[in-house]
Write a structure and sequence with these properties.
By secondary structure, this protein is of the alpha/beta class. The chain is built from four helices and seven strands; from the N terminus they run ββααβββαββα. Helix 1 packs across helix 2.
């Protein structure tokens, strides 16, 4: 079951001072990697050490294949593929002028398969009890400057 909370956000992207309340998922706990591995081991005949070894090797192979510019099909989980973002305003007037200096960054795109994408269809939801409704507070930083550890803090603010 998914629990929701209310969060307040500015409406209109700064055009007005109006704020509205929206539902957001209340992430009440995280499943650590070790617990995930144990849960998988409990549902199979494979030991947790073997499952962990497979995940370790799979991530290394996935990274190597992505660095080689390949799309990687991971079965029911989905597909991982490399992508690039062009620098802002870097368009040129001919194909011959396109070079690596126009690339801003490389990233990975994950596309879930139907089984994963529809996993939450019809899931039961309820309002979280004892959760304070929170005001969304933008950090004032650009998205690219926000560290992953800060994302949780911003969401919990």
């Amino acid at each position: 079951m998914i629990k929701i909370k209310a969060i307040e956000r500015k409406a209109g992207f700064g055009k007005t001072n109006k704020t509205l309340w929206y539902p957001a998922i209340h992430m009440h706990s995280d499943v650590k990697f070790e617990e995930f591995i144990e849960l998988m081991a409990d549902e199979t005949t494979i030991s947790s050490a073997d499952i962990k070894a497979v995940f370790d090797r799979a991530s290394k192979v996935l990274i190597r294949l992505l660095q080689d510019g390949k799309s990687v099909d991971c079965g029911d989980m989905g597909t991982f593929r490399p992508s690039i973002t062009a620098k802002r305003g870097s368009g040129v007037d001919s194909a011959e002028k396109v070079g690596i200096e126009l690339v801003d960054k490389a990233k990975v795109i994950y596309t879930p398969r139907v089984k994963v994408k529809t996993a939450l269809k019809g899931v039961r939801m309820e309002r979280a009890e004892r959760v304070l409704d929170v005001v969304y507070k933008p950090s004032g930083k650009k998205k690219s400057e926000i560290l992953p550890t800060e994302i949780k803090n911003i969401a919990d603010a």
